[in-house]
Structures are given as structure tokens and as C-alpha cells.
Amino acid sequence: MGDYLIITECSSPSHFMAINASLFLSINVMLLFMESKYLVQHAAISTEIRGYIKNRIFLKKRVDLYKHPPRR
Keywords for this entry (predicted)? Predict the structure, then answer.
């Protein structure tokens, strides 16, 4: 998966997948940037979904893509 993780919503609110951050510019998906004060949202996301991410995916390596851009 690489050093950077992007969490994207799949077909339903209860299904998520992690994609490599290098795909960020080539894939048009809804993104959540983890480990950020701002929790940047590119779409409206319910509290339930945010709770799911925090409980299930937040345990994975978290990154802030604004502070730590992918290495070349």
C-alpha cells in the first residue's frame, strides 16, 4: 500500500477501501484525509460514517497529505 493511505467511500456507507496515495490525482473519488485537524471532506459525510472510519480504519497508519506529501 505504500506509506500513504487515502480512505474512500465505496458503493455503500458501510464499505470502505484504502488506496495508495499515488493514485490521488488519477482517480476521481470521495476522499477523507486522516490525521488532520480539519478532516477535509470532499462530500457530505454522516456522523455514522465518520464514526465507522474512526473505529475501524483510524488504527491503520494515518497521514496528513497536506503536511506529508507522497515521496517521489
Answer: Membrane, Transmembrane, Transmembrane helix
